[in-house]
Design brief:
Layout: H1 2-11, H2 55-58, H3 88-102, H4 106-120, H5 123-129, H6 136-150, H7 154-165, H8 172-187, E1 189-196, H9 202-216, E2 220-227, E3 238-241
Parallel strand pairs: 1-2
Antiparallel strand pairs: 1-3
Helix pairs in contact: 3-4, 3-8, 4-8, 6-7
Keywords: ATP synthesis, Hydrogen ion transport, Ion transport, Membrane, Transport
GO biological process, one term: proton motive force-driven ATP synthesis
Main location: membrane
Length: about 240
C-alpha cells in the first residue's frame, strides 16, 4: 500500500504557482468506453418498435457489436415449452407424461393408461365410482385395489394413489384422456373423430385413416368412431380433426 500511495501523491502534486498560464494544461476529458458505443443513425437497432421481436429478426450476426445485447430470456423459449394447464386434469396428465418421459417409460405408461381406461368403462366400476351413497374413502380403497390387480406402471400407480388422497377420483377418466391427447401430439399423431348413426367397420376406419394420413402427412393417424342416434341429413359422415 505504501508504494501505491506515494506514486498517487506524486501524480496529484500541484504545479508550481509561479508557472505561467501557458504551462497549465487543462485536464483531458475521459474517453468513452469502447464497449458502449453511442447510438448511430446509420447502425440499425436490434429491437424495432414496428416489427415483432423475434430471434430471427432481432438477433443476427450483422447486428452484433463488441458487447452483444441478449434478448429477453423468455423469447428464447420455444412456444411448445410454455404449458398452460387450464384444468386440473391437464396438469395431472402433463405431470405423468413428464415423469414417464424423463424415466424412459413413456410407451409403457401409455399402454397402462389405455388399459386403465378400458377398465374404467366397465359398468360395475362406473356404478361404484358414481354411487352417491358410497363415501370417497371406500371409492379410494376400491381404486387402489383395482390398480394393484392391474399391475400398472409405478408412475401411474403413484398418480392414482395421490388422486385418491386428494379426493380427485371424479376426474381420473379425464386425466387419462388428456394424457392420450398430449401423447398423440408429442409423437405427431393426428386424431380423427368420425360421427355416424351406426358403428363403422374396422376396414372402413382403416381406409379413412390411410386417406387422412395421405392428405395431412401425419406420422400416425388415430380414428375414433362417435355413434350418434340421430344425425342431421348430410350426404356423407362428418370428420372432426383434433
Amino acid at each position: 500500500m505504501d508504494p501505491l500511495s506515494s506514486s498517487v501523491s506524486s501524480r496529484l502534486k500541484p504545479a508550481n504557482f509561479n508557472s505561467t498560464p501557458r504551462q497549465l494544461h487543462p485536464l483531458k476529458p475521459l474517453n468513452r468506453p469502447r464497449y458502449l458505443p453511442p447510438p448511430s443513425p446509420q447502425r440499425p437497432l436490434l429491437f424495432s418498435t414496428t416489427k415483432p421481436t423475434t430471434i430471427s429478426t432481432s438477433f443476427t450476426h450483422k447486428n452484433l457489436t463488441a458487447l452483444p445485447i441478449f434478448p429477453n430470456p423468455t423469447s428464447l423459449l420455444p412456444s411448445s415449452s410454455l404449458h398452460v394447464h387450464r384444468t386440473p386434469a391437464t396438469g395431472y396428465a402433463a405431470a405423468l407424461l413428464d415423469t414417464a418421459q424423463s424415466t424412459g417409460s413413456l410407451h409403457e405408461v401409455r399402454r397402462d393408461v389405455r388399459k386403465l381406461s378400458r377398465l374404467l368403462q366397465n359398468s360395475q366400476i362406473q356404478a361404484l365410482l358414481n354411487d352417491p351413497f358410497l363415501g370417497d374413502q371406500e371409492k379410494g380403497k376400491a381404486m387402489k385395489e383395482l390398480a394393484k390387480k392391474g399391475k400398472f406402471n409405478k408412475h401411474l400407480f403413484n398418480l392414482l394413489k395421490m388422486m385418491v388422497e386428494k379426493n380427485k377420483l371424479g376426474i381420473v377418466s379425464e386425466v387419462l384422456e388428456e394424457f392420450e391427447r398430449v401423447y398423440d401430439e408429442l409423437i405427431g399423431t393426428k386424431q380423427v373423430w368420425v360421427s355416424s348413426e351406426k358403428m363403422i367397420g374396422e376396414d372402413m376406419l382403416f381406409k379413412i385413416a390411410m386417406k387422412v394420413q395421405k392428405l395431412s402427412g401425419a406420422v400416425k393417424v388415430k380414428v375414433k368412431n362417435l355413434v350418434i342416434d340421430k344425425l342431421p341429413k348430410i350426404p356423407d359422415f362428418g370428420l372432426l380433426y383434433t
